[in-house]
Amino acid sequence: MTRLLIIVSMVFVLETGVITGIAQIGGQIGFVGSFAYGNNTSPTNLYSAPANWSLATDSDSGSNLLISMTTGPQGGTLPGPSFGSEIFSWSASSTNSPPGACPITANVSAGQRIVVLAIEDGVEYQISNLTDSQGNSYSRMVYYNNSTYSTSSQNIWSAYVKNPLKAGADTITITWSPNVTVSRAWAISIVTLNNTRQTGQPDSTAQNNAYGYTNSVSIPGTTVAANTVSVGLLVANDFVWTIGNGTIYDALTQNIHYDFFYHVNTSAGFYNPGGTGALHNTYSGSWAAFK
Length: 291
Fold this sequence. Notes:
The protein is an all-beta fold. It has strands at about 15-25, 30-35, 45, 50-55, 65-70, 75, 80-95, 100-105, 115-120, 125-130, 140-145, 150-160, 170-175, 185-195, 205-210, 220-225, 230-235, 245-255, 255-265, 270, 280-290. The protein has two domains: about 15-75, N-terminal domain of TfIIb (Single Sheet); about 80-290, no CATH class. It contains no helices and 21 strands. A hairpin with a 7-residue loop joins β4 and β5 (about 65-70). The termini are far apart.
């Protein structure tokens, strides 16, 4: 009896793959499964769409191997990262009870990225942990504890979503350290990003604070990857910030001004949201870029 050994190697640009069934009829055996498009891979000239696949022999002898896919890889470059939407916003001028569990206002899909931005008007408190009700893993991107101009604790955390979140059912929980005992002003914004890589984040960060000797505002930094989304915040002491080459998605006023912003960078290099403020006032800000 002759035995034929067939070794098959297949490489997919994918995020998740699973064998969903094994079937045997006589001497035949087959495997079926599925995989989903993954956007955390390095950019290539080929990317995959959601697909179902199967492997099977066409006879008891196993002399032929059949490969079938309902949808196959699609050509083109991976889409660049983009801003999704704000899914939670909150601010208070004076409280010692910032929200712990934050209810979200939109569904979050697997493969999206959650970015949590939070400010305390002072330097007493920082985010020590972040969780959500579906068990996604969060990491700190920026902690800027500025004690000079526009003193503030600025926090940027992020998670690549593996377990989807549902609006009205799931929450994102912020833990502050130490326990909040002093009444302070706070501002929180939670947003989503699309098409970012799962690992290697952030691409870059920047922080700055200044006194307004001129009317210019500056948080300069340098990005490394060709395509990134910069997401950040500005604490402006008693002036409205007119952003330069960025986009504000939430501007909150609680004694002072809190501005949350993003900008899609199509090329690597210098980035500064810039813009103008008011003379003889102070500000501080920070951002993190995601690739």
